[in-house]
C-alpha cells in the first residue's frame, strides 16, 4: 500500500509538471572527472537548454497527429541528450535514423538530478513521463524507448509508474504513455544479477562506464539499492509482457580510470594502477522472457549509442531493432484489437508455465558446451539439415533437462539456425518442460499447446487474429471453452496455414516420459494406474503403468504428427524407453550418457576443489566417480555429497561401496535412507507421504505445520486452538521455515528440497519456497511400498491422520498468512488473494477426504470451525486496516460496516464471472461435500433453527451456484472450483430430514431443473470443461447426482407442472421459451440410455405413464 501511495504522489507531482530542486534530499549524482562536450554544430546548440534536461525534437517526419511513430532516446548517466548519440559530428538519430525509419519523430530526452529517496531514479522517471506526455499532446502514435546504460533504468521506472497510474486511474494523461509503448531497446543496461554479483553491484559497475567517472559515494549508494532495483525489475517484468524488448550488450571492453576501491565489484581486467578494461556484466545485460530478444554489438559501451556512418554494422543493427519492435498493424487497428488480444493471451497463459524450467540448475561451468561443437556432437548438423526431429535420450538423472535448458538459452544455437535452416524465414523458438511432479496442465497436451501458442503469439501479436479469428466478434468470456484441445489445435495449425512460406519454428520439449493423458486418466482401472516393477536396475527399475505407457505412445504420435512440416523442427528429450526407441528410430539421436563422462569429471573436480581442497589423489578420484556414474549426473551429485561427508580414512571405502544405480531396493537412494538413524527413517516416511498426498507441492510453512500433527500431544488440544494464545510473528515464521529446511536435510537425506528461486507468480507469497522432490525419479522411488518395509525404523503410516494433519497445516498457515502478506486484496474489487484462497480450498479438499473416515468427529468439527473463524477474522481485520487512497467518508460510515457483516466465503477470487454468493461457511462446506460435518452442525441446532438452516442450504445442494472460474486455476492446474459440481446426494437426505422442502422456496425447483443443462447440454461451458480438462468420471458423477436430486425433490413435493422459462442460444441468437417441468426433465434425459429407467421412475412420480426413450 505504501508503494502505491508513493507512486500516486509521484504521479501527481509529474502531472503538475513540478520539478524538485537539485538540492532536495537524496544523494547528488556528483561527477568526479571531466565533462563530455557536445559535438553538435552551433545552430543545434542554441536549441539546447542550458541544463541539458528535457525533450529535444531532433527530427520530425510525421505527416499528421496520429500516423507515424515516436522514438524517444534516453542517454545514460552523465551523458547528454544530443552528445551521447553523436560521433565525429554526426548525430545519428537526427542525421540517419529519422530518414531511414518512415514517419518517425525522433525525441532526445536529457536528465540529471538526484537518486530518489526510494533508491531509484524516480524523479527522473517523473520528469520523463511529464515531458513525453506534454510533447505528445493530441497524438496517439506508438512509442519506442531507446535507453543507453543507466538511462534504461529511468525508462523502466517511468513505464512502471505509468502502468500504476493506469491501474489506479490516477492522472490518465501520464498513464497513456504506457499503453502506447510498443517497444524498448536497452543498450548496455544492467537488468539482473550476474553470478555472485548483486544487481546493485552490476549497476555500480555499469556506472563506471559513463562519460565521467562517478564518485565512490554514488557507487556505494547504487550497490546499497540492490533490493529496490530488484523490485523495480520484477514489477517491470509484470507490466511489460506486451512490450517488445531488445537487450543489446557491447562486445568490446572500455578502458576506464578507477581506483581499486571503486572498481572492486566491476566485471573487468586490471591494466595497471588506476586503470582497467571492463564491460557491463554479461548475464546482467539481458534477462529471460518470452518478449525479450538479446543481441551483441561489436562496440564498446559508449559506442553502442553512436555511429558516424550508415555503413557501420552497429547502425544497421539499430535500424533492424527499431524495425522489429515497430512492425505490426496500424495504431488504430492495433488499439481496436488490443483488448481482445490481451484477453486471449491471458487465457493461454498459466502461472506454472516456466516453473519446471526455473527449477533446473544451470549447466556447471562449460559442461554442456560440447552439444554445439561440430567435432563433438551431431547437433549442429541437425540444425542445418532438413531433419525435423532430434531425440536426445538418456538414463534417469543423466542431465537431459539441464542440457535442454542450456540449448534453449544459447545464443550460439540461435545464430546457427539463422545462418542455416532459418536464414530465409521468420524464426520463432518455443519450449515446454514436461513435469510429472507438477499440476495437471504441466504434463498434458493442453499445457504444451497453451505454452507454445503463448510464446509465439506474445512475440507476434499480429498472428493472434490469424490463430483465433472467431473469438474477435463474440462476448468474453466466450460461450465455448477457449482452452479446449480442439480450439487450441485449430489455433496452432492456423498459424502454419497462414505462415507456411515464411515461418520457421523450432520447439524444445523436455521430458516426454513425464507426459500424461490427464483428460482420460479416469478411463483406467486402479491396477492400470499402479506402477509395477519388473527389474531393479536401469530405467525399468523406476517402474511403469499402463496409463504411463499409453501416455508415452500418445506423445510420440503427437510429436510425429508435427514432424513432417518443413517449417518446424523439434528437439525432444526422454528416457530410453522402448516406445520412444520405436517411434524415433528414423531420426537423428544423441545418447547423452555417451557424452557426459567428461562433464561429470569436471563437475566432481569443481566440487572437490571447493569443498575438500588438498584432497590427495583427487584426479583419480574424479575419474573413478565419473566412470562409476555411468553417465548419470544426478548419481554423481548425490555420491559426491556422501563422499565429501566422509573422513579421509573412510573416503575410499565409501566410494567403493556405493551402488552404481539410483533406484530399486539396493540403489543409491536406498543407501541414503539406510544411513539415516532409525528415528529419522520414520520421520522421512511421514514427510515424504505428506508431500505425495498434498494437493500441490506444499510450502515450507504448510509442511512444517502439518508435520507437527493436528493435536498437541501434551494437552490433546487442537494445535490451531493453541495458536490463538501464541500468535505468529516474523520470528516464529522464519524459525518454522528454517527448522523445516534442516529436517529436509537430516530426515530426508536431501531427497526433498525447498525451492529458492524467484517466483514467477506475482500472486503467490511463497512460490519460491515450495517443497519438491530433488528429481522425478525420487518421487517415483519413494512411492514403492517395499522400500519402507525394508527400513527398520519405519512403521505403517495412518493416511487419515496425514490428511487430518494437512487440513490442520493449511488452516494454521492461513492464521500465519497475514504475518507475511495481507490475505485480502482491495483492487479492483474486494477478494481473497488467490494463494490465500488456495490454502482454504486445499484445507476443504483434505476435509473431504476424511469426512467419512475420521473417528474424532468433535475435533474434526472444531478444526473446521476454527478455519471459518480464522478466515472471518482475517477478512474483518483487512477491512478495518484498509485506508482509502482518496478521501471517502462513505467508506467508514456505510461500506465498511456493510462489508464487515458479510461472510468471507462470498469473496472468492475469480478470473471470469462473479464469485458465488454464500451466506456462511456451511454453504461452502456443502459444496465441498462435507456430509458428516454438515449433519453435525445441523444437529446442534434446535428444531426451528435446524429447519431454517436446512432450507437455506437446499439451493446449494441441488444446483451449482456460479458459472465463473476461480483465479486459483492459474496457481494450480489441478484446482477445480467448488461451485461447478453437484454436491453429494447424501446431503439431500440430511436436509430433508431436518425439515427442508422444495415448496418453501419457489426458486429452488426451477434452479435445480436448469442445472441439468450444465451436464447434459454440449453447449454448456461447464460440460465442455469437464469433458476436455477434467474427466468424464466427474461428468458422469454430476449427472448421476443431478438425476438423484430431481428424483428426491419430486418425492418431497416439487410440482412437475411448474412452468420454467428456459433460454437457448447466446447473445443475438438467444431465445426464451416456457416449458413445464416434466417436459424439461424428459427433454434433458430422453436419448440418454444410462438414465432411461430413472426417467421412467420420475415420470411415474409425476403422474405420467413411464416409457423408455432411447434415441432422440
Characterization of the model:
With 1112 residues, the chain is α/β, with parallel strands linked by helices. The protein has 46 helices and 27 strands. The strands form 9 sheets. It has a 7-stranded mixed β-sheet, with helices on both faces. It has a 5-stranded parallel β-sheet with strand order 16-17-18-15-19, with helices on both faces. The chain has a 3-stranded antiparallel β-sheet with strand order 11-13-12, with no helix packed on it. A hairpin with a 2-residue loop joins strand 12 (268-272) and strand 13 (275-278). The chain is globular, with a radius of gyration of 32 Å. The chain starts with a helix and ends in an 11-residue tail after the last helix. 46% of the residues are buried. Mean pLDDT is 80; it is low at 1-5, 18-50, 536-541, 757-768, 1018-1030 and 1106-1112.
Jot down its keywords.
1112 residues; seven-stranded mixed sheet; 46 helices; globular
Structural class based on helices, strands and sheet pairing? alpha/beta
Percentage of residues assigned to helices: 40-55%
Radius of gyration: 32 Å
**CA(first)-CA(last) distance:** 59 Å
Short synopsis of the structure:
The protein has 46 helices and 27 strands. By secondary structure, the chain is α/β, with parallel strands linked by helices.
Give a topology summary.
Layout lengths: L1 H15 L10 E2 L13 H6 L6 E7 L8 E6 L11 E2 L2 E2 H9 L3 E7 L3 E2 L6 H14 L7 E6 L2 H18 L3 H4 L1 H4 E7 L11 H9 L8 H9 L1 H14 L4 E7 L3 E4 L10 E5 L2 E4 L13 E6 L15 H14 L4 H18 L6 H5 L19 H6 L4 E5 L6 H9 L2 H9 L6 E8 L11 H15 L4 H4 L17 H15 L3 E8 L15 H4 L16 H17 L5 E7 L3 H6 L5 E3 L5 H15 L6 H12 L3 H12 L3 H10 L10 H7 L3 H16 L6 H8 L11 H7 L4 H19 L3 E3 L16 E3 L2 H7 L2 H5 L9 H22 L3 E2 L5 E2 L1 H17 L6 H25 L7 H13 L8 E3 L8 H7 L3 H9 L3 H16 L6 E2 L19 H8 L10 H13 L4 H9 L2 H20 L7 E6 L6 E6 H9 L6 H10 L11
Parallel strand pairs: 3-6, 3-8, 8-9, 9-10, 10-14, 15-18, 15-19, 16-17, 17-18
Antiparallel strand pairs: 1-7, 2-6, 4-5, 11-13, 12-13, 20-21, 22-23, 24-25, 26-27
Amino acid at each position: 500500500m505504501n508503494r502505491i501511495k508513493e507512486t500516486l504522489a509521484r504521479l501527481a507531482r509529474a502531472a503538475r509538471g513540478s520539478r524538485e530542486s537539485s538540492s532536495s534530499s537524496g544523494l547528488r549524482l556528483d561527477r568526479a572527472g571531466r565533462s563530455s562536450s557536445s559535438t553538435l554544430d552551433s545552430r543545434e546548440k542554441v536549441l539546447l537548454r542550458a541544463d541539458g534536461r528535457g525533450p529535444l525534437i531532433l527530427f520530425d517526419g510525421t505527416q499528421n497527429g496520429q500516423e507515424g511513430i515516436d522514438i524517444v532516446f534516453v542517454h545514460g548517466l552523465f551523458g547528454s541528450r544530443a552528445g551521447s548519440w553523436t560521433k565525429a559530428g554526426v548525430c545519428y538519430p537526427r542525421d540517419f535514423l529519422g530518414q531511414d525509419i518512415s514517419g518517425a519523430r525522433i525525441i532526445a530526452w536529457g536528465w540529471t538530478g538526484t537518486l530518489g529517496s526510494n533508491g531509484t531514479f524516480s524523479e527522473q522517471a517523473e520528469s520523463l513521463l511529464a515531458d513525453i506526455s506534454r510533447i505528445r499532446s493530441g497524438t496517439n502514435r506508438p512509442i519506442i524507448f531507446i535507453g543507453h546504460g543507466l538511462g534504461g533504468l529511468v525508462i523502466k521506472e517511468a513505464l512502471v509508474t505509468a502502468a500504476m497510474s493506469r491501474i489506479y486511474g490516477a492522472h490518465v494523461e501520464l498513464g497513456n504513455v504506457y499503453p502506447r509503448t510498443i517497444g524498448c531497446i536497452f543498450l548496455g543496461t544492467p537488468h539482473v544479477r550476474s553470478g555472485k554479483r548483486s544487481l546493485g553491484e552490476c549497476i555500480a559497475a555499469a556506472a563506471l562506464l559513463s562519460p565521467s567517472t562517478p564518485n565512490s559515494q554514488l557507487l556505494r549508494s547504487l550497490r546499497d539499492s540492490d533490493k529496490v532495483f530488484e523490485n523495480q525489475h520484477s514489477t517491470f517484468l509484470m507490466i511489460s509482457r506486451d512490450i517488445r524488448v531488445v537487450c543489446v550488450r557491447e562486445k568490446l571492453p572500455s578502458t576506464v580510470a578507477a581506483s581499486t576501491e571503486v572498481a572492486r565489484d566491476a566485471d573487468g581486467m586490471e591494466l595497471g594502477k588506476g586503470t582497467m578494461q571492463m564491460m557491463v556484466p554479461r548475464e546482467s545485460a539481458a534477462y529471460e522472457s518470452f518478449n525479450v530478444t538479446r543481441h551483441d554489438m561489436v562496440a564498446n559501451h559508449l559506442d553502442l549509442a553512436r555511429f558516424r556512418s550508415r555503413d557501420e554494422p552497429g547502425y544497421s543493427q539499430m535500424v533492424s531493432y527499431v524495425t522489429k519492435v515497430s512492425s505490426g498493424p496500424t495504431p488504430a487497428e492495433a488499439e481496436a484489437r488490443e483488448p481482445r488480444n490481451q484477453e486471449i493471451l491471458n487465457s493461454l497463459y498459466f502461472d506454472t508455465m516456466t516453473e519446471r524450467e526455473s527449477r533446473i540448475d544451470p549447466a556447471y561451468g562449460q559442461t554442456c558446451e560440447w552439444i554445439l561443437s561440430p567435432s563433438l556432437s551431431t547437433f549442429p548438423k541437425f540444425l542445418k539439415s532438413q531433419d525435423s526431429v532430434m531425440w536426445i535420450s538418456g538414463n534417469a538423472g543423466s542431465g537431459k533437462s539441464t542440457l535442454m535448458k542450456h540449448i534453449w538459452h544459447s545464443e550460439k544455437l540461435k545464430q546457427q539456425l539463422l545462418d542455416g535452416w532459418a536464414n530465409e524465414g521468420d524464426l520463432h523458438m518455443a519450449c515446454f518442460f514436461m513435469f510429472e511432479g507438477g499440476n495437471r496442465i504441466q504434463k498434458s497436451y493442453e499445457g504444451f499447446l497453451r505454452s507454445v501458442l503463448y510464446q509465439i503469439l506474445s512475440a507476434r501479436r499480429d498472428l493472434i487474429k490469424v490463430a483465433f479469428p472467431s473469438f474477435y466478434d463474440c462476448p468474453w468470456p466466450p460461450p465455448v471453452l477457449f482452452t479446449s484441445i480442439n480450439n487450441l489445435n485449430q489455433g496452432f495449425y492456423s498459424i502454419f496455414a497462414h505462415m507456411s512460406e515464411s515461418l520457421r519454428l523450432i520447439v524444445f520439449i523436455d521430458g516426454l516420459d513425464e507426459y500424461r493423458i490427464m483428460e482420460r486418466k479416469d478411463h483406467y482401472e486402479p491396477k492400470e494406474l499402479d506402477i509395477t516393477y519388473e527389474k531393479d536396475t536401469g530405467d525399468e527399475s523406476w517402474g511403469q503403468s499402463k496409463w504411463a505407457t499409453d501416455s508415452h505412445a500418445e506423445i510420440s504420435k503427437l510429436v510425429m504428427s508435427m514432424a513432417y512440416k518443413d517449417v518446424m523442427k523439434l528437439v525432444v528429450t526422454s528416457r530410453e524407453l522402448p516406445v520412444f526407441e520405436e517411434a524415433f528410430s528414423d531420426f537423428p539421436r544423441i545418447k547423452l550418457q555417451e557424452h557426459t563422462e567428461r562433464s561429470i569429471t569436471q563437475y566432481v573436480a569443481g566440487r572437490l576443489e571447493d569443498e575438500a581442497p588438498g584432497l590427495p589423489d583427487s584426479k583419480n578420484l574424479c575419474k573413478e566417480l565419473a566412470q562409476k556414474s555411468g553417465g548419470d549426473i544426478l548419481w554423481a551429485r548425490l555420491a559426491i555429497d556422501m563422499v565429501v561427508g566422509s573422513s579421509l580414512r573412510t573416503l575410499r571405502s565409501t566410494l567403493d561401496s556405493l551402488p552404481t544405480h539410483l533406484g530399486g531396493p539396493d540403489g543409491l537412494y536406498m543407501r541414503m535412507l539406510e544411513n539415516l538413524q532409525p528415528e529419522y527413517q520414520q520421520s522421512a516416511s511421514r514427510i515424504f507421504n505428506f508431500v505425495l498426498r498434498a494437493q500441490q507441492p506444499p510450502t515450507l510453512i504448510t509442511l512444517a505445520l502439518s508435520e507437527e500433527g493436528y493435536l498437541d500431544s501434551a494437552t490433546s488440544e487442537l494445535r490451531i486452538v493453541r495458536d490463538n494464545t501464541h500468535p505468529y510473528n516474523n520470528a516464529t515464521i522464519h524459525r518454522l521455515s528454517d527448522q523445516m529446511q534442516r529436517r529436509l536435510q537430516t530426515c530426508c537425506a536431501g531427497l526433498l528440497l525447498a525451492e529458492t528461486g524467484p517466483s514467477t507468480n506475482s500472486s503467490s507469497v511463497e512460490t519460491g519456497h515450495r517443497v519438491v522432490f530433488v528429481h522425478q525419479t525420487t518421487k517415483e522411488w519413494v512411492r514403492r511400498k517395499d522400500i519402507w518395509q525394508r527400513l527398520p525404523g519405519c512403521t505403517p503410516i495412518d493416511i487419515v491422520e496425514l490428511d487430518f494433519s494437512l487440513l490442520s497445516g493449511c488452516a494454521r498457515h492461513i492464521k500465519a498468512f497475514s504475518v507475511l502478506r495481507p490475505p485480502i486484496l482491495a483492487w479492483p474489487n474486494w477478494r481473497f488473494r488467490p494463494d490465500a484462497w488456495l490454502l482454504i480450498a486445499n484445507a476443504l479438499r483434505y476435509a473431504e477426504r476424511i469426512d467419512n473416515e475420521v473417528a474424532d468427529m468433535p475435533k474434526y468439527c472444531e478444526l473446521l470451525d476454527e478455519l471459518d473463524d480464522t478466515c472471518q477474522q482475517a477478512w474483518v481485520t483487512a477491512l478495518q486496516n484498509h485506508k482509502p487512497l482518496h478521501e471517502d467518508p462513505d467508506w467508514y460510515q456505510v461500506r465498511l460496516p456493510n462489508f464487515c457483516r458479510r461472510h468471507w466465503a462470498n469473496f472468492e477470487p475469480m478470473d471470469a464471472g462473479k464469485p458465488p454468493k454464500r451466506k456462511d461457511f456451511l454453504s461452502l462446506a456443502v459444496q465441498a461435500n462435507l456430509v458428516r460435518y454438515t449433519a453435525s452442525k445441523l444437529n446442534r441446532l434446535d428444531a426451528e433453527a435446524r429447519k431454517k438452516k436446512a432450507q437455506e442450504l437446499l439451493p446449494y445442494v441441488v444446483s451449482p451456484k456460479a458459472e465463473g472460474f476461480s483465479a486459483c486455476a492459474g496457481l494450480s492446474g489441478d484446482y477445480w472450483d467448488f461451485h461447478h459440481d453437484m454436491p453429494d446426494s447424501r446431503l439431500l437426505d440430511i436436509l430433508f430430514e431436518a425439515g427442508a422442502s422444495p415448496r418453501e422456496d419457489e426458486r429452488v425447483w426451477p434452479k435445480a431443473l436448469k442445472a441439468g443443462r450444465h451436464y447434459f447440454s454440449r453447449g454448456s461451458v461447464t460440460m465442455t470443461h469437464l469433458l476436455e480438462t477434467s474427466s468424464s468420471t466427474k461428468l458422469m458423477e454430476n449427472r448421476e447426482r443431478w438425476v438423484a436430486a430431481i428424483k428426491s425433490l419430486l418425492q418431497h413435493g416439487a410440482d412437475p407442472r411448474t412452468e420454467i422459462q428456459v433460454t437457448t442460444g447466446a447473445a443475438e441468437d438467444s431465445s426464451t421459451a416456457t416449458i413445464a417441468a416434466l417436459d424439461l426433465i424428459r427433454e434433458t434425459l430422453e436419448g440418454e440410455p444410462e438414465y432411461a429407467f430413472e426417467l421412467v421412475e420420475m415420470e411415474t412420480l409425476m403422474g405420467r405413464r413411464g416409457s423408455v426413450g432411447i434415441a432422440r
